[in-house]
Specification:
This protein is mostly helical. The chain contains 3 helices and no strands. Helix content is about 90%, strand content about 0%.
Length: about 190
């Protein structure tokens, strides 16, 4: 029969404490990685929306320019041919209803040009505002990503440090246990 000292020494307590801290740090690193993945995914989605918005803006600006060119051609035609051509168009009417119809047509074309230009300008403005909003969102998300990268790096460094300390504490505990076994003296049996 041997007498063995109870081993829950400081070394064992240190190992348990380091194991608990290491486990907590691993959970923290895992959580930060998930959060970082979510932000990276959100950044990708925002970038896609931003690209789509830029395409919409380019299309809207193209339509606005086309509408503007079309209106300018009509204005140029009316200016070059003089107001007399419009006046002639109106005066060449054979009756009052035809005169009113032609005057209404000229008014509608002018109003249409004005309305389309205003609508296209408003669309371009809305798309530009949306683009600006998406750029701000992207900037914010990038900032969050940088912060998380820093936190993740710090947590990973701390985890690495605790794993090294845990390894050393386990080695120390094993060494102490072996030394204690070597010092154990057998107790003579009772007669």
């Amino acid at each position: 029969v041997f007498s063995v000292s109870v081993f829950p020494t400081q070394a064992t307590k240190d190992v348990e404490e380091l194991e608990n801290t290491t486990s907590d740090l691993e959970s923290n690193v895992s959580s930060l990685n998930k959060e970082l993945d979510n932000i990276v995914s959100h950044i990708k989605k925002t970038s896609k929306r931003l690209d789509k918005t830029r395409e919409e803006l380019a299309i809207a600006k193209g339509e606005e320019e086309a509408q503007y060119e079309s209106m300018m051609l009509r204005i140029k035609y009316m200016y070059e041919s003089g107001n007399s051509s419009l006046l002639e168009l109106l005066l060449s009417s054979s009756c009052l209803p035809e005169f009113i119809n032609r005057a209404e047509y000229i008014s509608q074309v002018t109003e249409y040009d004005r309305d389309m230009l205003e609508e296209l300008a408003e669309t371009s403005k809305t798309i530009s505002e949306k683009e600006e909003q998406l750029l701000e969102e992207q900037k914010y998300l990038s900032s969050l990503q940088k912060d998380l990268d820093k936190k993740l790096s710090a947590a990973s460094d701390e985890l690495t440090d605790y794993k090294a300390r845990l390894k050393k504490a386990k080695e120390d505990a094993k060494r102490l246990e072996e030394e204690a076994k070597e010092k154990v003296e057998p107790i003579p049996p009772k007669k």
